[in-house]
Amino acid sequence: MPMRLRLAMHGRAHYRVFHLVAVNQRARRNGKPAEVLGIYNPNVPAGQDHKTVEWSVDRIRYWLHVGAVPSKSVVKLLELGNILKPGSVYHPNSTEKKASL
């Protein structure tokens, strides 16, 4: 069963919250995940000046180690959080992408 790390969309219109999930790659966007790895809230709450991301770094590294492939948007978040190095094999512009997987 090929696994993917992707964002599942939740919340109401104009106030979306995204769950970072490990899911079968053939499952629907909001289908039942194998595991919820984190929450990304792109909305800035009143009184704060930044977006929030809560995630389990150990579990994300585990899923990457066992072969789960992150989506493009998840790769961007993981690079911003220093979990993946810029230009990693998962990065969309990587030249060694197909050779090393």
Automatic annotation (TrEMBL):
It holds the Pfam family Ribosomal_S16. GO terms for molecular function: structural constituent of ribosome. The keyword Ribonucleoprotein applies. Keywords: Ribonucleoprotein, Ribosomal protein. HAMAP family: Ribosomal_bS16. Belongs to the bacterial ribosomal protein bS16 family. This is Ribosomal protein S16 domain-containing protein. It comes from Mycena alexandri. The lineage of its organism: Eukaryota, Fungi, Dikarya, Basidiomycota, Agaricomycotina.
